[in-house]
Amino acid sequence: MEVLHSSFLAAEAVYRKVQRRAELPIEPLSGEEVIGEALRKAVGSCKEELLTAQPGGGRPPALLAEALPRDLALLRKGVRQRTLYQHSVRSHAPTLAYIEQVLAEGAQVRTVDEIFERVIICDRSVAFIPGTAERKSTALALRDPGVIEFLAKMFDHAWERAEPVAISIERHRPDLLTSSVRRTVLRMVVTGHTDESIASRLGMSARTVSTHIRKVSEALGSRSRAELGYLLSQRRLLEQGSAPLGEAPGSPAPGRRQPTKESCG
């Protein structure tokens, strides 16, 4: 019996090794239900670390409501969580409410002007990225160690230049980083992007982009995009450390608690 038991154990080890090798390093996922189930299974199985990059600005309240219990449960199990958003979420109330709760449990959240792409990395063993067709209904699950290491490094590079989000009890919203966002908008204007393409890349509405451009145009006395680009270049207003580019495009809602400057840049 002991000999047979040892033989079965050896055979099982060989079988599991072959099964792991047989797993596809890239698995296409098609359909929102299939993608959602794969994500729930992978994220729910995280034991050490969850990295998430979420471009596109504020997230839909329904998705946040679904993600919150899962993320809180992981945090309470000791899973380290780091999430990257774009600066535009700093004025999106549902996303801020979610952030406030995960921060209280030890998560880390930062924002950056642009995010390279949506990605979710679980324990650096599997990563999810959008597919190449209809983005909402296709995705790829990646298990190749080299690809996952590459994606994790891209995440870390973006994380290093991102601004931490901190929400205090006295003042609910973090800083809006208006000058940083506005400079990014204007750099893209100078390089020829339309309001719509800027909005898509920065996770904000085209109307907000137009407001940023209008504010600076009025401050500089510019009457066209070409003249605006010339004035920005002549006065070196897009360089780091230059003077603030006007005031924020809009005031907060009455009664809204306002940001602290604690750790928010």
Let me know the number of strands.
Answer: 8
Please give the alpha-carbon distance between the first and last residues.
67 Å
H/E series? HEHEHEHEEEEHEHHHH
Low-pLDDT segments, ≥5 res: 247-265
How many H/I helical runs? 9
Strand order, main sheet: write it out: 1-7-6-5-2-3-4-8
Rg (CA only): 23 Å
Please indicate the percent range of residues in DSSP E strands (runs of 2 or more): 5-15%
Structural class call reads alpha+beta
Helix content: 40-55%
Q: Which descriptor suits the 3D outline?
A: elongated
Can you tell me about this structure?
The protein is of the alpha+beta class and 265 residues long. Helices cover 47% and strands 14% of the residues. It is built from nine helices and eight strands. It has helices at 2-22, 32-44, 61-76, 93-104, 145-161, 178-190, 195-202, 206-220, 225-234, and strands at residues 26-30, 49-53, 80-86, 108-112, 119-122, 126-130, 138-142, 163-164. The chain has an eight-stranded mixed beta sheet with strand order 1-7-6-5-2-3-4-8, sandwiched between helices. Helix 3 (61-76) links the parallel strand 2 and strand 3. Helix 3 packs parallel to helix 4 (93-104) and helix 7 (195-202) crosses helix 8 (206-220). It starts with a helix and ends in a 31-residue tail after the last helix.
Q: What's this entry about, in short?
A:
The chain has 265 residues and is an alpha+beta fold.
List keywords for this structure.
8-stranded mixed sheet, 47% helix, 8 strands, single chain, alpha+beta, disordered C terminus, 265 residues
Give the arrangement of secondary structure elements.
Elements: H1 2-22, E1 26-30, H2 32-44, E2 49-53, H3 61-76, E3 80-86, H4 93-104, E4 108-112, E5 119-122, E6 126-130, E7 138-142, H5 145-161, E8 163-164, H6 178-190, H7 195-202, H8 206-220, H9 225-234
Parallel strand pairs: 2-3, 3-4
Antiparallel strand pairs: 1-7, 2-5, 4-8, 5-6, 6-7
Helix pairs in contact: 3-4, 7-8
